[in-house]
Amino acid sequence: MLSKKTKKVLLQTGIALTISLSSFALPSHVMDFTAEAAVVNTQTGKLTVTAFSLWAYSAPDWNAKTRTYNNGTTFDVVEKHAIDGREMYKLSNGLYISANPAYVKFETAGASEAPSAPVQNEGDTRETTANLKMRESGSLNANTLLTIPKGTRLKIESVSGIWAKVSYNSRTGYVSTDYLKAVTDSSPVITQPQTGVQETPSTPASGTDLRKSTANLNMRSGAGTNNRIVLTIPKGTSLTVESQSSGWAKVSYGGKTGYVSTSYLQAVSTTPAPAPTPTPTPPTSGEQDTRKTTGNLNMRTGPGTTNSVIRVIPRGTTLTVEALSGTWAKVSYAGSTGYISTNYLEKVTVSQPSTPANPNPGPVVGTDERETTANLNLRSTASVSGRVILTMPKGSKVTVLSESNGWAKIRYNGTEGFSSTSYLKKLAAAPAPTPTPEPTPEPTPEPTPTPDPTPTPEPTPTPDPTPTPPVEVPVTQKDQRIITGNLNMREAADGVSKVLTVLPKGTIVTVESLTGKWAKITYNGMSGYASTNYMSPYTAPPSTEAPPAEKDVRQTAYNLNMRVGPGTSHGIILTVPKGVMLTIEALEGSWAKVTYNGKSGYVSVDYLTKVVSTTPQPPATEVPAVDTVLKIEGPAGTKEYGDQTISGYLLTKGTLQSISISVNGINIGNATLNQKRDDLLASHAQYPNASSAGFNLSANKDVFVNGTNTVKATAKLSDGSSISESITFTYNRPTFDPVGVLDNKDVVNYKNEDIKVSGYAKIATGVKNVRVYLNGRAQGTAVYGKARTDDGNANTGYEYLIRRNNIFPGENTLRVEVTGNGGEKLEFTKVLKVEKIPTIVIDAGHGGKDPGARGILNGSYVYEKVYVLQFALALEAELKAAGYNTIMTRNNDTFIELNERARIANAAHADLFFSIHHDYNSNPSSKGAFLIYPSTKLTSISESTLKESVDVASAIKQSFVAMGFQDRRNGTDSSISGHTLAVLRQTEMRSVLSEIGYMSNSEDLSKITDPVFQKAMAKGIADKIRAYFGY
C-alpha cells in the first residue's frame, strides 16, 4: 500500500498512478504499477482522424494498442499526455490516441486558459434564454440530468469553455453558456474568503491595476497556452498587472514574473460602492419565433453548408424556429428536423393567445410517468442482450409507452428504448409541472456510427428478465432514406454482429423491413441491417416529364483507379487512362459507377471533368457532298470463302478526308486512299482527283457471314459534308464440323514447373474463345490466333501457361473448351501427372517494433508477436516432418514490412501463404477463431485463386473448432477489416490470414500461451493442409 503522503507527492508532480489487480487470485502484495508521464495540458476540444487508419490505445502506453479508427472519425479530447518523448490525447471514451498533427486534426473547445481548479465567479448570475438541458459533464455527449425551464435564474459556479457549472433542483451539472444571459441579481452576492488566503491586501497606489485571481491560475513563461507553466497562483491572490496584451496580463508572484489569462482575473476596488438593488423584472413568457422562407431553401442535417441536404423547403413556407446556432436555425418541416440559414428567413408577427387559467398543466391524462430507483440502462431491445443506448441516473423521470414481460418501452429526454420494470416506480398523480418542450439549445453533432462503443455494464443488482424479442415488420410501401454519416451495415439487427460493409454518408437506401430501430436494406448486392438513428427520410425529386436528359459524360483528369465498390477500401479492377471519356451510370456519394474496357466499377468524381456540351440538338443529318460521286465496285456477285478486297472510287471537287468501311453494320476500318485510276481520268476529267480517286481495303475471310453480306462505304470531306454507298454480295462460307487438337507433350511426369497448354481449333463460324480448366477450376482464357504449321500455317493455334503453384502433387485433370461464334463447342481433356512437393510460406504476424495485441497473464502484459512466432515455429516443424517445403517470413523477433512478406511468397512460387495472428477486442467476453481470405488481388496466378483461398480457409477452420475455439465467421478482408489486407492482396497464390483466439479473453489467452496447446493446434492445422494438397 502507498501512504497518503506518497500518493499526494506523486500527484503533485504530475504523475498519474494506476494500480490494477489481475483477474487471478494473486497475493495481496502482487500488483502492477504503471507510471504515466505528466499531463501536458487539459485543453479540451474536438479531434478528427486525418490518417487513413490510426491506432487507439487503452492506456497512455505506446504498446497498449486496442483498435483502429478510420479517416474522418471525430472524438472529444479531455487532456494531452507526454509519453516517451511523444504526445497522446486522452479521449472522452477513455482511450488514447496519437497527438501527431500528421495523423490528427485538433480544434480547441475555447481560447481561454484552462484553470487548474473550478472558477468561482462570485456574483455571476445568469438567466436561461430557452428550456435548457443540464448535463453530467461539459460535453454534448454527456447524459442529460434534467431540463431547466426558460427564464430560470442560475448562479454560475464555474465556467470551462462554453460550459457553465450550475445547481438546480438539488442537482449539479453543466449547461451551455450560449443559452444564458447576464442579469443583475436583486441581492448582493456575499463573497466567502478562501481558507488560508489573505483577503485584505494593502491599499495600492493611485493608478495601480490591482486584480484578484478567481481560480487556481497557471502563470506561463509567455502570453499563450503553448508556453511553459512557471507556477500555479492560488485562487483569491491579489496581483498587480504590469502590462496587458491580447487577453494576457504580465504579473509577478512568488519571486517569479510571467503571464496569466485575464479571463480569470477580477478587478479589485479599494473603496467598493454598495451594489444597487434593482427591482427584479419577472421573466416574460416565451414568445414563439415564427419566420417565413424568402426563397427555396435547403434543410441540412447540421448547422453548416458542409452537412447533407435533407430536403428543399419551398419559398414562402412559414416555420417555427426551435433553436438558433450562429446563422443557422433548427426547424421541423414535412416530418423532418434539420437546419436552415437565417439569411433567407424573415420574421412573421404572430398574435399572442391569451394566457390560460392554468399556465402549468400537469401531465396528459392517461400518461404513465415513473421514476428510476437506480442507475438504469436504456436498451435498444427488450433484452439484456440489447445494445445499451445510455444510462439513466437514479431518480430520472421517464414516460412508459408500453409494458410486456417485465420490460417497459419508455421515453427519456426524447430517446426511446427498453428498461426493466423492476427498477421503475410509479409517480404520484400530480407530479411537478413539465417544462415547455425545449428548442434543443445546443446542436447535436452528427454521430460517428463506426465503431459501436463498448456497452456500459448493467448497474442493476439483479439480471433483467428475457422478454420476447422484437418482431421484424415488413415495409408495406416504398421507404427511402438517406444516410447521414458513414454507417455500419451489419449481419443482424443489433450492434454486435459482424460489419458487412460501411455505407458512405449521403447514400440513398430503400428500407425493406424494420426490427425496432434497425432497418433491413440491400447495398452493393449485400443484404444487412443498419441503424435508423443515422438515416433521414428521402423523397426523390418529382419527375418533370422533360425530354430525356443527355448522358452525363465526364473526362478523366488523371490516370484513375476503377474500384469494385464506391470507396478506397475496395479492390482495384483496372486503371482508366487520363483523358478518357466516361458515361456516368450512377452516383453514390462522391463515387461514380462507369464502364470501361468491358469492366464496370467505381471511380472518384473528384478526378473527373464535366464535358460541357452545347444546347442539345437533334443528331445532325449528313450534309450531302456536292459534286461528289462514290462507287463501290467490289466484292460483287458471289464470292467463295477467302479474304476479300473491298474497292471503289470517289470523285470530288472538294478535299477527301477519309472513307470508312463497314460489313453487316460492323465497322472494320478505313480504306487506303489515292489509288491510281487512269480510267477515271479519261472518263471524268472534270474532277481534279480523277487520276487518284481509287480506294481499297483487304478484309479477313472470317468477317463475312454465309449468304448475303452488306458492305457500306462512308466518305467524309474536309468541309464536313459526307456521302455513303452500299452494295450486297453473296458469300459461300464452307460449313464443316469443328476440328481441333490438344498437343500431346512427351513429358510423362512433370516436376514443380509451369506447364504450357497448346493446340489448334477450327470452327466454321469462327472461334469465340478458348478456356482452360484444371481440376474443374477455371484458370483463364488462352491466346488464340497463333500460326500452326500443321494446319497450313493458318492462324488457328491457341496457347496458355498454367503456373506451377496452381498444380497439385499427383494427377491433375486438364480440360480445354473451345467455343465458336455460333455456339459450337470443342472439348479436350488430359491427365497431367506431377511430381512436386508443395511449398508453404508461414507468416508470423507483427514482430520487432510492432508488438501486436496485448493481453494480461498472471498480472503481467504479454504480446501477440511472441505467441504467433511460437505457433509459426510449431507449424513449420509439423509440415517439415510431413515432407513439405516451408519458408518462414521471420523466425525471430524482427519487424518485416508487409510488402516484403508478400514478395518472399511470390518469389518462392509458394502454393500457400498462411499468416498467423491473435485478435483483440475491448470487450473481454469476445472469443473464438476465424480466418480471413482476400476479396481481390493485384495479380493472381489464375481466375480460381480467390475461390481456392476460401476452400483452404474452410478446411483449416475445422482444426480451430476441434481444438475448442468458438466458431466465428470466416470472411473477406474488406468485409471483416473494412479494407483489403496487404499480405492477402499482394500475394499471387492462395492466401489466408488466421485469427487464432483473442488476447483480450482469459480463456483464449490460456490456450494461446500454452506450449502444449500450440503444438497440438499446429498439428491440427498441418493435417488440414496435408489433406487439402493430398500430399
Describe the 3D structure.
33% of the residues are buried. The longest helix has 19 residues, at 1011-1029. The protein is mainly beta. Among the domains are: 38-108, SH3 type barrels (Roll), CATH 2.30.30; 127-182, SH3 Domains (SH3 type barrels); 210-267, Roll (SH3 type barrels); 290-347, SH3 type barrels (Roll), CATH 2.30.30.40; 369-426, SH3 Domains (SH3 type barrels, Roll); 473-537, SH3 type barrels, CATH 2.30.30.40; 553-610, SH3 type barrels, CATH 2.30.30.40; 628-731, Sandwich (Immunoglobulin-like). Helices cover 9% and strands 42% of the residues. The protein is built from 9 helices and 83 strands. α3 (864-881) crosses α9 (1011-1029) and α5 (945-962) runs antiparallel to α9. Strands 3, 4, 5, 6, 7, 8, 9 and 10 form an 8-stranded antiparallel sheet that branches. It has a 6-stranded mixed sheet with strand order 79-76-80-83-81-82, sandwiched between helices. Mean pLDDT is 79; it is low at 1-38, 111-122, 185-206, 270-286, 351-365, 430-469 and 543-548. The two termini are 61 Å apart. This is N-acetylmuramoyl-L-alanine amidase. Residues 273-283, 432-472 have a biased composition (Pro residues). Residues 191-210, 269-308, 428-477 are annotated as: Disordered. Residues 191-206, 293-308 have a biased composition (Polar residues).
